[in-house]
Amino acid sequence: MLGEGYVAGTSPLHRARPLWKLLGLIVLCTMLFVGPAWPALALGGAAVAAGFALARLPPIHAARALRPLAWILALLFAVQLWLSGWALAAFAVLRFAVLILAATLVTLTTRSSEFVDGILALLAPAPAWVPKARIALAISLALRFLPMVRDMLEQIRQAQAARGLERNLIALSVPLLLRALKSADDISAAIYARSFDEAD
Amino acid sequence: MTAAPGTMLALQGVSVVKDGRTILHPLDLTLAERRVGIIGRNGSGKSTLARLFNGIETPSTGTVLLGDCADRRALRRGVGFVFQNPDNQIVYPIVEEDLAFGLKNLKLPPEEIRARIDTVLDRFGLAGLRGRFTHQLSGGEKQMIALAGVLVMRPATVVLDEPATLLDLWNRNRLMQLIAGLEEQVIMVSHDLEMLARFDRVLLVEAGRIAADGPPDQVIARYRAGAAC
């Protein structure tokens, strides 16, 4: 579920209530993990493919969602191949891919404000002490700020390259963490400046 | 011209101390003018002073009043705040959703939210940005949307903390024209002395104290003289 998610449209999936989409996602994930392995995967895969077709989303969106995770899928495949053989390795990778694509389908067809409304509806039965608005906003913020963190990472990488430092995970991650924490402070202030304390 | 009755901002004996360090010494201040500028060196305490007006910063002593009300929620409703970096102010990935954020917090009905967004986008000629991803906007567009996100809540006062620092000359001029045309009271922290010269009153903050307070020409002249030393 990546930040640059929503694709405008008028399909039935776009118009469906976010709560139903989230519940559908939960049901699909549960089925993939507790259902009979290959039949559940086939059914889940077919449902996701039908969802993309129904939402009139070309396959390029699916490819874009999976591309950044290719190395994780490759690693998962290699580990499963070593531990359990071809069949289980293929199953694990396909199941993971179907999960990602199902979540992507929800993101592509749901504006983040509707997504927040859906999470709030999902949390409605929770007791009063559960900070519903905060949980919903936290999920929305994650979607909003993924591209920003990606830009920060690129700026730090370029600044380090300009001073002769090639790729170095620690040298990248420390300033990234510090900048992200500083931004988090400012963002928190900005959220409260816009009366968020009246939302819960 | 002065701020509307009941919306006048005042600080009574307000100080800010953090980690044992005094950021702002106790001060009393009433801001009745429609255009108030705040200037000072980096680290002088001017941003902390500005943040007090919207309740983002909590005073260590004293009270911040809007009219005769000291409630923090009322302060946030009545005083909007625009940050230096719009990237840290825009919360939602799509412009329209971000503009709705504060209004939803105030639990306004959807039709009023839509009407207010339409009004603010038309007012600033930003209607074309309504459905755009916020992270794809230019710096100038982001700052306009950050300001629109505050104005849509219809505050009596707008506080801006160096809003043009990250903008190019064209976007700076556009933003400043827009700010000059606002009906709301404006309190602006800025290093843009040319802009502040047209304000009604300017405060000079030095080492956590109001070192000068008065008409722009006198206060700015003192600030320039200090910088020349």
TrEMBL record, chain A:
GO cellular component: plasma membrane
Alphabetical keyword list: Membrane, Transmembrane, Transmembrane helix
Membrane-spanning intervals of the chain: 20-53, 65-83
Domain of life: Bacteria
Membrane topology: Multi-pass membrane protein
Database matches in InterPro entries: ABC/ECF_trnsptr_transmembrane (IPR003339)
Cell compartments where the protein resides: Membrane
A Pfam family matched in the record: CbiQ
Record-stated family: Belongs to the CbiQ family.
PANTHER family with a match to the protein in the record: PROTEIN ABCI12, CHLOROPLASTIC
Protein name: Biotin transport system permease protein
Origin species: Allgaiera indica
TrEMBL record, chain B:
Source organism, top-level taxon: Bacteria
InterPro entries, A to Z: AAA+_ATPase (IPR003593), ABC_transporter-like_ATP-bd (IPR003439), ABC_transporter-like_CS (IPR017871), ABC_transpr_CbiO/EcfA_su (IPR015856), ECF_ABC_transporter_ATP-bd (IPR050095), P-loop_NTPase (IPR027417)
GO molecular function: ATP binding; ATP hydrolysis activity; ATPase-coupled transmembrane transporter activity
Keyword ATP-binding annotated: yes
Residue ranges of every copy of the ABC transporter domain listed in the record: 9-228
UniProt keyword terms in alphabetical order: ATP-binding, Nucleotide-binding, Transport
Coiled coil: none
Family in the record: Belongs to the ABC transporter superfamily.
Protein name: ABC transporter ATP-binding protein
Organism: Allgaiera indica
